[in-house]
Write a structure and sequence with these properties.
This protein has 22 helices and 22 strands. The chain is an alpha+beta fold and 747 residues long. The strands form three sheets. Strands 1, 2, 3, 4, 5, 6, 7, 8, 9 and 10 form a ten-stranded mixed sheet that branches. Strands 11, 12, 13, 16, 17, 18, 19, 20, 21 and 22 form a ten-stranded mixed sheet that branches. The radius of gyration is 33 Å and the shape is elongated. The relative contact order is 0.12.
Length: 747
C-alpha cells in the first residue's frame, strides 16, 4: 500500500522521540520478563527442593530420648527423625554448626563435589566455604579433628542459614552449617539431639497438630525445648518473602512503563492527525476508507510495541540465570536447571502491543470520525480554553509566567504524562533510598537492647541471675483468628536496665507493666488501655493481657510482661526463667544452652546486607533517572514542536535566545516539582504496604523512615535530569527559523 511508505518517514523525522518511547517499552518488557522469570524459577527451585528433600515442619529437643518414635508417627500421621547438632567455634568471630547426615527429613542436597562416603569427610554450605576460603578437597580443622571437604551442600531447614532462628541478618564470614556422618558425633561430647517432624496431612490445622503433639509428649513425661516451626522460622520463610515481593513487583512497574508509553503515543498521534487533517481529508475524498487510514496510523505504535517487546524480552532471558544465581548465593538452594518461560516472553511482547494498540486506536478513530470537509478545513480547536486555564485566571500573572502555565494547561494529556512520569520516577528513586535508610535506622539507631549477649537454655532454670545478667522468660502466641501471625510475649525483670522501652515522645516506659511494641500493636489493632486475648502456641489455651503502654520500637514484635506476672499467668514455677540477657560473656556449658546470640555479630551481617542494598539502590536510581530523562525529553520536544511558530514569532519580536529558552524549556518546572512532592507520600504509602506484608511473612515490621538528605538527593537527580533534557532540546529551539511565522502568515 502506498500509504505505508510514509511510516518510515514518520520514524525518521522524529528519531529521538520514538527512540525514547521504544526505551520505555523495552524497560517495561525487560522488567516483567526478568522479574517473573526470577520469581518463578526461585519458587520452583525452593518448592521442588523442600518437597523432594522433605523439609521439616518443626523441630525440637528433649530432656530424654523419645522411646517409641514409630508409635508417635502412626498416631499423628507424621515422620519423625532425630539428628545431632554441635556448634564449633573456629575463631573468635566464626562459628560452624555441625549437623549429622539424615535420611528421611531434611535430606542433604550436594550442589558440588560428592556425598560423604568415607570417615573424616564433611559437606559445607557454599556461602560459608567461599567466605572462608574452603574448596572441594581442602582440609578444615573442626571439633578437634581434620576433615576433608567432600562437597558443598544445601539443607531444606537452612535455606537462609542464620545462626539463631530469630535473626534477621547473617554473614557467612561469621556463621555456616556443615554435614558430617553420624558416626563422627561419637567423638563429640555434649552434642545436642534434635527431632525433626513433618506431618503427612497437609490440610489439617498445623497449630492443632502441634498442640496435640506437645500434649502427648508432656503426658509421656518428656520435656521439650528449642521448639521451632516453619511458620515463624526465618531460615525457611524469608526466601518466600523475597519470591512474593518479586512476583508482586513484576506487575506494577511494567504496567507503569506501558501506561506512560500509551500516553505519549496518544499525544503524538493526536497531534500528528491534527497537523495532517488536510491530508487526511484529501485522502478521504480520494476514496480511502476510515479502516485503511486507521490501519496506516496504527502501524507506528504497533511496530514500536512489537520491537520494544521483543528486544526487552530477549534481553531479559539471558539475565535470568545470573539473577537466580545471585539470589542463590544468599539463599542456599540447589539449582538443577533454569527454566525460561515462553509464556512470559509472549506476555512481554503482546502486553505492550495491547496497551499501545488500544490507546492509539481510540485516539486515531476519535479524530477520524470527523467528516472529510471538516478535516480539510484544518485544526479548528487550537485556541480552545479548558477548565484548568479558566480556573487559574492566568490574566493576573506576568507574561512569562502566564505563557509557561498556559503551555502546560492547554494539553491535559501531555500534562498527565509529565506528572505521572515524574511521580513514578520519583517513587522508584525514593523507594530504594528509603528502604536503605529504614533498615539502617532499625539496626543502627535502636537503643532498646542494652545487653551484649543473649543466652537461651534448654530447660527451665531457677534462682538468681549471675552478676551482669538479667533473667527472662518467653512464649510464642498468636491471635485466635489468625494462626499464621505469631510473636513472642516475653517476661522480663521489673527493674530491667537492659531492655529500655520508650514512647513516641522519647520518654522512658517502666518495665513493671505490660508493654507492646508499636508494629505489633498496629497489627493487632490495640492501644494502651485495651485488653487482648491471645492463644499460647505451646498449650493452645487463651490468655488475656491488659496493655498499659505502646513502645516506639521496631526491632521485633513483642509484648513485654513483668516476669513474675508472666510465670503466674502461664503456670510456670516461681523464680523460673529460660534465658539471660547479659552485658558480659558468661561461662555457661554449651550442653545447657539451646542458643547464644552476640550483638557484636550484627555489624558484619549488617555491612554485608547494606552492601547489597547500596547496589540495589544504585540500580534503582539509574533506572529511575533514565525513565525521567526519557519522559522529560519527550515532553520538552513536544512543547518545542507545538510552539515552532510561537518561537519564530518571539524571534521576530526581538526576544533573545536565553529569554525564549526560558519560556519554552522552563515551562515544565512547576509540574516536575509538584510531581516529585506527590511522589513522597505515594512512596511512603507503598512502603507501608510492603513493610506490612513483610511483617505478616517474617514477623518483622520496619518503619518508613524518610531521610531529608535522600529526598534532597533524589530531587537533585530529578532536576539534573531535567537540565540534561533541556540541554538536549535547546538546539531544536535555535533551529527554528524566523521565516516559519512568515510562511504561516502566507498560508
Amino acid at each position: 500500500m502506498a500509504l505505508n511508505k510514509r511510516v518510515f518517514r514518520f520514524l525518521k523525522e522524529n528519531k529521538l522521540r520514538y527512540t525514547g518511547i521504544l526505551l520505555l517499552i523495552i524497560l517495561g518488557s525487560y522488567t516483567f520478563v526478568a522479574a517473573a522469570g526470577l520469581s518463578q524459577n526461585l519458587a520452583n527451585l525452593v518448592t521442588a527442593f523442600t518437597e523432594e528433600h522433605m523439609q521439616e515442619d518443626l523441630s525440637f529437643s528433649t530432656d530424654k530420648t523419645i522411646p517409641d518414635k514409630a508409635e508417635i508417627e502412626k498416631q499423628f500421621d507424621a515422620i519423625i527423625e532425630e539428628y545431632m547438632s554441635f556448634d564449633v567455634v573456629l575463631s573468635e568471630t566464626t562459628t560452624l554448626r555441625l549437623l549429622s547426615e539424615t535420611e528421611r527429613l531434611n535430606i542433604p542436597a550436594v550442589t558440588e563435589g560428592s556425598m560423604i562416603s568415607d570417615p573424616g569427610e564433611i559437606l559445607l554450605d557454599p556461602a560459608f566455604a567461599k567466605a572462608n576460603g574452603y574448596s572441594v578437597g581442602s582440609q578444615i580443622e573442626t571439633a578437634d579433628k581434620a576433615f576433608t571437604v567432600a562437597g558443598f551442600v544445601s539443607l531444606p531447614h537452612y535455606i537462609y542459614p542464620v545462626k539463631n532462628v530469630n535473626d534477621i541478618l547473617y554473614s557467612p564470614n561469621d556463621f555456616g552449617v556443615a554435614v558430617i556422618s553420624r558416626d563422627e558425633f561419637l567423638d563429640i561430647e555434649n552434642a545436642a539431639t534434635v527431632y525433626s517432624v513433618r506431618f503427612n496431612d497437609r490440610n489439617q490445622s498445623f497449630n492443632r497438630q502441634v498442640v496435640q503433639l506437645r500434649e502427648y509428649l508432656r503426658d509421656e513425661g518428656i520435656t521439650v525445648s528449642d521448639w521451632i516451626d516453619n511458620i515463624d522460622n526465618k531460615r525457611t520463610r524469608l526466601v518466600w518473602a523475597s519470591i512474593t515481593g518479586m512476583q508482586t513487583m513484576s506487575i506494577p512497574l511494567p504496567a507503569a512503563m506501558f501506561l506512560l508509553s500509551c500516553l505519549i503515543i496518544g499525544i503524538m498521534f493526536w497531534r500528528m492527525i491534527r497537523q495532517e487533517s488536510v491530508i487526511i481529508g484529501t485522502l478521504y475524498a480520494q476514496g480511502y476508507r476510515r479502516r485503511e487510514l486507521t490501519r496506516h496510523y496504527m502501524t507506528v505504535p504497533l511496530l514500536l510495541a512489537f520491537t520494544g517487546g521483543v528486544i526487552g524480552s530477549m534481553l531479559a532471558l539471558p539475565s535470568i540465570e545470573p539473577m537466580v544465581m545471585a539470589m542463590i548465593s544468599y539463599y542456599n538452594v540447589p539449582v538443577p536447571g533454569i527454566t525460561l518461560s515462553f509464556l512470559n516472553v509472549l506476555i512481554g511482547i503482546l502486553t505492550p502491543m495491547l496497551f499501545l494498540g488500544l490507546s492509539s486506536c481510540l485516539v486515531i478513530r476519535s479524530e477520524l470520525k470527523r467528516s472529510p470537509a471538516s478535516l480539510m478545513k484544518g485544526d479548528e480547536q487550537k485556541t480552545k480554553v479548558n477548565f484548568l486555564e479558566r480556573s487559574f485566571k492566568l490574566e493576573r500573572f506576568k507574561f512569562g509566567t502566564k505563557f509557561k502555565l498556559r503551555e502546560q494547561f492547554r494539553s491535559i494529556s501531555r500534562l498527565v504524562f509529565l506528572f505521572l512520569g515524574v511521580t513514578i520516577s520519583s517513587v522508584l528513586m525514593l523507594l530504594g533510598f528509603t528502604v536503605m535508610n529504614s533498615m539502617n535506622h532499625v539496626f543502627n539507631t535502636s537503643d532498646v537492647y542494652q545487653f551484649e549477649y543473649e543466652y537461651a537454655f534448654r530447660n527451665l532454670q531457677f534462682g538468681e541471675a549471675p552478676e551482669g545478667a538479667e533473667i527472662f522468660n518467653a512464649g510464642k502466641f498468636y491471635p485466635g483468628n489468625n494462626e499464621d501471625m505469631e510473636f513472642y510475649i516475653s517476661g522480663i525483670e521489673d527493674d530491667s536496665t537492659v531492655v529500655v522501652l520508650k514512647d513516641s515522645k522519647g520518654n522512658l516506659i517502666p518495665n513493671n507493666q505490660t508493654n507492646i511494641t508499636k508494629p505489633l500493636a498496629s497489627r493487632l489493632g490495640v492501644n494502651a488501655g485495651d485488653t487482648v486475648t491471645l492463644i499460647n502456641k505451646e498449650d493452645g489455651k487463651p490468655y488475656s493481657f491488659h496493655i498499659d503502654a505502646v513502645a516506639d520500637s521496631y526491632i521485633e514484635q513483642f509484648i513485654y510482661v513483668p516476669i513474675d506476672e508472666f510465670n503466674i499467668k502461664l503456670g510456670l514455677p516461681e523464680n523460673s526463667y529460660m534465658g539471660l540477657f547479659s552485658t558480659i560473656k558468661l561461662d555457661i556449658p554449651d550442653e545447657e544452652l539451646s542458643g547464644m546470640k552476640s550483638m557484636s555479630e550484627l555489624p558484619d551481617a549488617l555491612d554485608e546486607f547494606m552492601g547489597q542494598m547500596i547496589l540495589m539502590v544504585s540500580l534503582m536510581t539509574i533506572v529511575s533517572g533514565i525513565v525521567a530523562l526519557i519522559i522529560l525529553y519527550l515532553v520538552t520536544s513536544l512543547i518545542i514542536e507545538e510552539n515552532r511558530r510561537t518561537i519564530s514569532l518571539f524571534k521576530v519580536f526581538g526576544y533573545r535566545r536565553r529569554e525564549i529558552k526560558s519560556m519554552i524549556l522552563n515551562s515544565s518546572t512547576f509540574v516536575i516539582v509538584i510531581g516529585f512532592m506527590i511522589g513522597i507520600p505515594v512512596m511512603a504509602a507503598s512502603m507501608g504496604a510492603i513493610y506490612g506484608y513483610l511483617g505478616n511473612i517474617i514477623n518483622l515490621v520496619i518503619p518508613t523512615i524518610i531521610s531529608p538528605l535522600y529526598v534532597l538527593v533524589s530531587f537533585g537527580v530529578i532536576m539534573l535530569t531535567y537540565q540534561l533534557s533541556k540541554l538536549l532540546c535547546s538546539k531544536r529551539v535555535n533551529q527554528v527559523l524566523i521565516s516559519e511565522t512568515l510562511k504561516a502568515g502566507m498560508e
